[in-house]
Amino acid sequence: MSNDSTEPHHPTWLERLSRALIREPHNREQLIYLLRDAEHRHLLNAEALSMIEGVLQVSELQARDIMIPRAQMVIVEAQKTLESFLPTIIESGHSRFPVIEEDRDHILGILHAKDLLQYIFHKRTDYNLEEIVRPAVFVPES
């Protein structure tokens, strides 16, 4: 039996049954429902579900929705010593800090607090901020 491509395809009873059993989400709410159902049936663990839901929420945001005003940023000034800005890092509780030049208009990069551990705990004296600062990624507000 040949299948002429001009004739409309009529699904077999098996195809119709499989479509009825496979619950393909048609919107975000249905997708979240299916993910939560998968977690309930132990196909996903709670941590994976939480991460996926977080990604779905972030995908709806624009950068301006999560931006912190410049006046409220906790920053590290490039010309300061480790000993002078370390208390600020500890008190803030943040893990990443923009590193700025003295004029405060130019961001050199991002300092990860964990990159300071080697200097603090091993009492290394060869601290050089420029060697550990990471590139800053700039995105438009929209």
3D architecture notes:
It is a single chain. The chain is mainly α and 142 residues long. Helix 2 runs antiparallel to helix 3. The N and C termini lie far apart (56 Å). A three-stranded mixed sheet has the order 1-2-3. Helix 5 (82-92) links the parallel strand 1 and strand 2 (96-100). It has helices at residues 13-21, 28-40, 46-58, 63-66, 82-92, 117-121, 129-132, and strands at 76-77, 96-100, 107-112. The radius of gyration is 26 Å and the shape is elongated. The protein contains seven helices and three strands; from the N terminus they run ααααβαββαα.
Please name the defining characteristics of this protein:
single chain; 142 residues; mainly alpha; 3-stranded mixed sheet; 7 helices; 3 strands
SSE map:
Blueprint lengths: L12 H9 L6 H13 L5 H13 L4 H4 L9 E2 L4 H11 L3 E5 L6 E6 L4 H5 L7 H4 L10
Parallel strand pairs: 1-2
Antiparallel strand pairs: 2-3
Helix pairs in contact: 2-3
Oligomerization state of this entry?
single chain
Count of individual beta strands: 3
Shape: elongated
Distance between the termini: 56 Å
Write a brief caption for the model.
The protein is mainly alpha-helical. The protein contains 7 helices and 3 strands.
